[in-house]
Structure prediction request, 456 residues.
Amino acid sequence: MNVRDVPQDPQSYVPKGYIRYAVDDAGRYQTVHSIGSKEQTLANNLFWEHVEKKIASTAEEVRVGKASPLAFFMALKMIERGLLARYVGFSAWRVGRHLKPRVFKRLDPSILKRYADFFGVPMDEFLTPPLERREILLGKACE
Amino acid sequence: MTESFAFGTGSGLSFVHLPFVKFLDLPLLSFRNSMGSIFRNSTKRLGIQARIWTFRDPDEAMSALDRQLEKGVPVGLQAGLHWLPYLTSRTRLHLNAHMVVAVGKTGKDYLLSDVVAGSIMPCPGKDLRMARFSKGPMAPRGKMVIIEKLPGRVSGAYAAAQGIRSVSGTMLQPIFPWIGVKGIRFLANRLERWPETLGEEESRRHLGHIILMQEDVGTGGAGFRYMFAAFLQEAAGILKEERLQGLSARMTSTGDQWRAFAVQAARLCSGRSHHGESFVSMAALMRCIAGEEEAIYRELRKIAPKIRSREAA
Prediction:
């Protein structure tokens, strides 16, 4: 890739941009700054569309009672069963059970608290989630 | 010392595709080795004395970090992206393969030099602690590295030759189907069948994933191939081996082919494919790339000198 051809997509996601390595006309490598290419923007769009769709479909499942509020927070935090299990200290199988509404309803408050603390939300919000929320939930260090 | 030289001497260039290790239903795909291994190999071969720690206890990890910072020593830390508060929300995925350098501490905040953020950022201690013990694949486990001592003479030639031999060896390895040139062909075979195995939407998402791993994560572009080509140029000078210049140029055109793949993939995802473009044609392009890379590594293995030790060079 020649330094002249380094892409600069104005719709790039990452304002800070990227380092690219490209050759000058003499064939020697230079580092060049790029704000991103059309392909990267497109790929990022695909990724985030999928995340948003997952949040929306999970919200619907919770609304109709097919999944517990836990599922919605997992979608908001883009975290899967296995990884969540490691953070909260339960087995992945147990977390899977907690996704069922009838099991979730009967959970001990101490278990619910572990989840709520991990997601960084107050208990009442954890039990009745704001299903219209589409913004992802960011990590917050507890303690 | 340049980034590309550190990358090359650390034998950073690679290809790994593990379809059974998933993140958000996307299979693991990497164009490089882990940062830990790049750092370890590079420093060892250059004769730089480095120290690498991992910890079980977060308190111990943070005290060890404080001790080094008090001495004015900058510390490399592995940190999970999700827990770093200064990053933009779209960067904070549950990915652990990220390194920052702690350069100081003010009060309870650490000063971190982070490539993704582009500058030195303050990070509260409790967030850094969480990031250093982030869970999931390639978990940091509090990993930290420092440079203890620089040698009187850096063994650049030895390190460059070893780096080249090591990369060639890995990429040409004949055993595991998911690694190296075999891995590229493996991915090509799977990619060709994605429309039937995954359906239209998931196939597109998987293509997008390849583009991101190649261009976003792949520093320098084209899945690190350009950076490695830059290293080969440097190695040509250090090893006084003109043929490496030619191989650098070939590596550059392979990088161009990877980029062409990304462009084709993006066209397909946005429904603007040119006539004849499809998953089948992209798989064919990927196999072509595999063939080119294979030829390059075979040449590299022949040319790279076998230098016995750091002192010999």
Remarks:
- DSSP finds nine helices and eight strands in chain B.
- The two ends of chain B are 18 Å apart (CA to CA).
- Chain B touches chain A through 51 residues (CB under 8 Å).
- The domain at 49-149 of chain B is CATH 3.90.70.10 (Cathepsin B; Chain A).
